[in-house]
Amino acid sequence: MHEDRPTRSTRFSVLLCRDCCCGTETKHPDFDHQRQELELQKAAIEAGGSLHRVKCLDACGQSNVVVLRTPERGRVWLGDLADDASHEALCAYVRAGALGHLPPALEVRRFAPSTASEEVEGRCNLRGIPVRES
Question: Residues near 15 by Cβ (< 8 Å), separated by ≥ 6?
Fold first, then answer.
């Protein structure tokens, strides 16, 4: 039986930068990075997407970087996601399928990546290094 719903791979994916300066208590000691990852993963799965933990996206000036890969919007880079308000906005947007306009709380955190960061992200093929699935 053919299912009309898009497959997970055609929906969206979330790349979560970790294991470098992003997601460490050194840079953001008062933020729960583990909770962020677990809740973001749950939101992505609920919406039919996926979360992938990435070693480093080479955008360390932004800190706590997320890249949303969506068929509708392409790649959306978000940084400085180390507070409860931005975390909750991101989870709600992802839970809704990462569709439509970014909410204001996320739009202000959107940034244009460097060429080097885009090259690193482009090598994240969701199957091998430097991506490690959660």
Answer: 52, 54, 57, 66, 67, 69, 121, 124, 131
